Amino acid sequence: MRIRVIAGRYGGRVIDGSGTMRTHPMGERIRGALFNKIADELQGAVILDAFAGSGALGIEALSRGASHVTFIEKDRIAAKIIHQNVEALNIDTVKIIKGPVSSVVNAMDQQFDVIFADPPYHDPQFSTVVTLFRLLKPGGLMILSYPGKGEAPTGLEVVVVDDRKYGNAALAFYRKKNAQ
Fold it and tell me: 21 falls in which pLDDT band (50, 70, 90)?
């Protein structure tokens, strides 16, 4: 499967999909709506792309002005595809971590301006998603892609600022509360 980068520096370029049926790439229409909504958040941002799959979300963020992306992907084939995609686009402002998000996050102490969480729909791992909230900088934004049915998880340190449905998919937008 091939995925088109929608806009920005790499706009129109095509990257490889994850190469595995265990991941689900976000559709271009939803990805376009997402990035149009968060465009102002991206300039110079430090991004975490958790459950990265092909890396399309992080690459789109870099294309639109983010300064650095950390990708986390446990699937060996998908992690290799991310590496090939960033190499093909000559991107060097990335870090690719191969491993389960649940394990990697517990060892991280870095904070991010924007976090993309796009877990597999057959295993949404909401308990792991909630642990990602602590990696957001105060005022930071996290976007969760989840199956359109059911409720998105919440946490005390974040506020749900938007929740949009797109057929069988939904996006929840969380804003980290500022420290008191």
Answer: low
- In angstroms, rounded to a whole number, what is the distance separating the alpha carbons of residues 73 and 18? 10
CATH code, domain carrying 34: 3.40.50.150
Q: How far apart are CA 168 and CA 20, in angstroms?
A: 20
Give exposure, 27-61, as e/b (b: 16+ Cβ within 10 Å): eeebbeebbeebeebbeebbbbbbbbbbbbbbbbb
Place of tokens 């991107």: 91
Sheet containing 169-176: which strands, arranged edge to edge? Answer: 94-98, 68-73, 46-50, 112-117, 136-147, 169-176, 158-166
| Count of domains forming the chain | 1
Single pTM value for the model: 0.93
> What are the respective helix, strand and coil percentages of the chain, to the nearest 5?
30, 30, 40
Q: CA-to-CA distance for 116 and 94, rounded, in angstroms?
A: 15
The helix/strand/coil state of 100 is coil
- Structural tokens at position 178: 């500022």
**Domain region containing 134:** 2-176
The proportion of the chain whose per-residue pLDDT surpasses 70, expressed as a percent, equals: 95
